[in-house]
Amino acid sequence: MVFKITRRDLIGSALAAGAAGIIPGVARSAFAADSKLTAVEWGGDVVEAMKQIAAAQSASSFDWILHQGGAGAILPKIKASWPKTDFDYVAGWEGSFNSMVKEDWLETIDPADIPNLADLPEKIIIRDGKGNIKAVPRAVGGMYFGARTDIAPIEVMTIDDLLSPKLKGAICWPGPTQSMMLQIVALALHAGGSETNMEPGWKLMTELAKSGNIGRVAITDIDFTNSLTSGETSVGFFAEPGWAAVAKSFPVTRMTKSAGFKAFLYQSGFGVLKNRPNSKATLDFINFAIGPEMNSLYAKVAGEAPLNRKATTPDTLKHLAFTPEEFASFVYVPDYNIVLEQQDSWSKRWEQDIAPLL
User: Fold this and answer.
1) What is the pLDDT of residues 49-80, one digit of tens each?
2) Is residue 285 within 8 Å of 57, Cβ to Cβ?
3) Is residue 143 within 8 Å of residue 237, measured between CB atoms?
């Protein structure tokens, strides 16, 4: 991620500066500010959302530290000073949280300390091998297939359609540094494999590369958005922010609830670090942040779908809001430990077997 993604849909009414900044209709916490928390967040719209949430309470004030690149970049910094750490919570996703769990850096979360956890989907909560809760999710983004509805040569209904001669040069495909190569996991799933059995995916990837249908390999987010917005290509697989950028100007079909495809969701959330004096204040803030009102605000500002079942999902994110039945049918949650462990070998396989065909 890796998932360093651009966030959008800024909230329409900005907060006033200083202590007077209050979101209309949102009451402030009654507590005086008595805790100073250091939080690690992504930049852009995400930290803007969290600053607005922080401004809606007064129990804690904040020092904000921004991720430099992907969320995994903070891990060596934590390791270098451990067991001392300067961070109360670190925003992350499955990959970075799983690494933190292995290092035993994260506090175990007692649901009694975060009552709003009860309104989040159980399936997406990260636990250790003993079943202990190790991170608190707040929202989800997605990686999925989609198309520019206005210019796609055919209606793509299944992955098999990607091989249609009518799509000659029309597909924008992620390069090996994008999307954790879940695009090839998607091919493997379609062909009867999975992240633990990738040969069916590589076979299908080879066929796709030979077909001539891939008109652009997107090494960066900009490669993807430029290719789709210019009309060079019209079908692809990419993360939510790329599709959202295209959808600002053109009609987009997002295949997140299509029977012929699987959507890959990634969560963003909070990991509470051990060895800090502010654990109670940190947990209280996280509980506040994932409550219905604040989770709705986060979704509106940060551009990720809220996870609290009582929160309001913006219309622009309805394609990432799933009922339990839809989640079971359309979403695939890979074993991210395996996915991350295989990145180097999959990248080498791409360069050796696929790149020469493109």
Assistant:
1) 999 999 999 999 999 999 876 677 899 999 99
2) yes
3) yes
